[in-house]
Amino acid sequence: MRINYAAKTDVGMKRDNNEDNLLVFPEQNVFAVFDGMGGHAAGEVASAIAVNEVKEFFTFTGKDEDATWPFKADRERTYDENRTVTAIKLANQRIIEQSEQDGAKKNMGTTAVMVHFVERNGSGAQALIAHVGDSRVYLFRDGRLQRVTIDHSLVEEYLRLGKITAEEAKTFPQKNIILRALGQQKIVDVEINAFQPHPGDIFMLCSDGLSGMVSDEMMQAILQKTSGLDAAAKKLIDTANANGGIDNVTVILAQFLPN
After folding, report:
1. Where do the domains of the chain lie?
2. 257 pairs with which residues across the strands?
3. Hey, which of 9, 50, 172, 248 would disulfide with 91, CB 3.0 to 4.6 Å?
4. How high does pLDDT run on average in the chain?
5. Has residue 66 got a pLDDT over 90?
6. How many CB atoms lie under 10 A from the CB of residue 76?
């Protein structure tokens, strides 16, 4: 399989520094976005640690499939699913270690969203989508955009429980409260789902600086009308900034193409 991709990150219109970080690692077909949080620039430290740990773990295990992992594998998951989850768990552990060593970085954290494309033993390609927090993955297929992750956030939980409507969710006062993140607790629950990609599918990973400023309908229209992944990524970020750009904004577009 081949993965075409484009990746861009921007500080936005209101922030002084960019706490988002992204990982593009085509050698292992790994793409990830991390949206850091915590004052005094600690958020960007947390998201940078996550990038480094995930890349190191995939590099190390890519050379040796029998390498010992720091966490027990879940027997109900495949090797590749366990590998993806373990990379994120390892990032969580490192962030906590760093925050315990440096008082200025206490409670720093980051969201995590990752797409890992795998193909094994003629069983067909899979896109493994793992996430913690409210950074998102969307799937653009046949001209339609659909969200494939559910935010680990208070507003999403209230929606799920029927406490608020979709209309009320738009102006929900605690919109930015997330229920899971890396760096907050020693054991992190990483959600992972497997998708069967179709030729030409585009997986869009983004921080909430994009999804919070640009409607799903507008993102779909941009992807429909813009030719080329680089141009589309730029247009998405430009639109978030034109709409106010109140947060850092990061987007990765990864397109699946079979050989």
Report:
1. 2-257
2. 2
3. 50
4. 95
5. no
6. 7
φ, ψ of residue 65 to 5 degrees: the values are -70, -15
162: left (phi over 0), alpha (psi -120 to 50) or beta: left
Per-residue pLDDT band at 241 (split at 50, 70, 90): very high
Assigned fold of 2-257: Phosphatase 2c; domain 1 (3.60.40)
pTM exceeds 0.70 for this model: yes
CB-based contact 210:251 (threshold 8 Å): yes
Pick the more confident residue, 71 or 34: 34
